[in-house]
Amino acid sequence: MLKKSVMAVVLVTATSWGVAAQDAGTVINDASRAMGADKLKTVEFSGSGADFGMGQGENPGPYPRFINKSYTRVINYEAPATHLTRIRLQGENPPRGGANQPMRGETTQNQTVIVNANTPWPQQLDIWTTPHGFLKAAATRNATFKSQMRGGKTYNVVSFMAPNKAMVNGYINDQNLVERVETWIDNPMFGDMLVEVDYSLYKDFDGVKFPTSIVQKQGGWPTLELTVADVKPNAPANIKPAGGGGGGQGQQAAAPPPEKVAEGMYLIKGGHGSLVFDFEDYIVVLEGANSEERGLHVIAEAKRLVPNKPIRYVVNTHTHFDHASGLRPFVAEGATVITHEVNRPFLERVFSSPHTLNPDTLSRSGKRARFETMADKKVLTDGNHVIELYHQRGTRHHPGLIFAYLPKQKILYAGDGYNANVPANNPTPNPVGPYTVNMVENVKRLNLDIDRIISIHLPPDDRRVTLEEMLNAAGMSE
């Protein structure tokens, strides 16, 4: 018995010494040799699966799904650079959520990233969160190592600090294969948002082990599900800037001047249209727009157009990211958020989310959000201006979607119920968009008298949109 106990102590000691003797460099080198990363300069992998429209789904809920009939990504680890080509199809039938649904037929999507000194780290993740890219990045970034249990399995977890000051963790299994890479990036809605990629079903492709199943998540929901059919290690990867130009980014066009729609009512333009109202003692803003930068711009314009009055209310039509990512600066300003009651729990989470990677206006202010919610209808008025807010019944675009009607001006303000961001005189879509049909049904249900439509996604030609145009898009008539 004593002999067995001594042997057990020796085995435990030897095992502990073996773990302690490893360091991050050893773990990285062992995995690089096992996976063929040490000899991999470029890679092309292709397959099929699905991608998902981030921030465009239910509230909360999964993002809408699009079929990837084909998906091909080329990565040059030495440049570094990456190019993606995929053919996408409508995946939600009937359509559910945003992301420019319904998609008609096949759409080819291309994306190129050529890394230079000014390329933001989040745009590089498709390179450095691949299994081989992770190992290459970890080898040059003073990585650390620890043993960790996850899902009942023990992993060697290699970690390094990314340029955005977030940790990047790679989970390496007992076969020296990278099963998972996770990190955090700043998101205007979620704040410090977890990005996670899981890899499984590795196969050997000309001496390089590569996963044939890839699942990526952002904000807790899938953004990519890919089944890899073919991998070409060290394939030619002459990745050029999109359009064949020099890859430089031109200056952003200045926003057009605001339009005075009526006395004490202004349309803030520039892609998204926010309405500013000069109430007797305060300002009301319809829609905080799609980013903090845009939100700050709308706030500044509102104060310029209506000086010496506070912004008391900002109306949020729904929580899709392109309509709610500009709300946080309004909360910092002290404005009360008016939205549908089903949106409040999600927005409360958004407004309390930590932004430590890139502190924004709200996180620096320390303000807490205030809400006024509505169910079917809410009216804002100071005795002069009248803003009627309605829940858009029956739409599958978003369960908390609302729109505004201005009875004095006979204006419909549509928050994705109808988007006029297409060229004028477009033929009636075939099939017609169900969201537009639903918008018309709501207008007819409420018997609204409309002379003009202002859609939040403004038309590129700055035209005046009429009811007739919306009816044509819905394949209807008055």
Characterization of the model:
This protein has 478 residues and is α+β, with helices and mostly antiparallel strands. It has two domains: 220 residues, outer membrane lipoprotein receptor (LolB), chain A, CATH 2.50.20; 215 residues, Metallo-beta-lactamase, Chain A (4-Layer Sandwich), CATH 3.60.15.10. Helix content is 21%, strand content 35%. It contains eleven helices and 23 strands. Strands 4-3-2-1-11-10-9-8-7-6-5 form an eleven-stranded antiparallel sheet, covered by helices on one side. A hairpin with a 4-residue loop joins β19 and β20. α2 runs antiparallel to α4. The N terminus is likely disordered.
Any idea what the shape is?
Answer: elongated
The largest sheet is: 11 strands, antiparallel
Helix count equals 11
Query: Into how many domains do the coordinates divide?
Result: 2
Structural class by helix and strand composition: alpha+beta
Report strand order across the widest sheet.
Answer: 4-3-2-1-11-10-9-8-7-6-5
Low-confidence segments, given as residue ranges, are 1-21, 244-250
CATH architecture of the largest domain: Clam
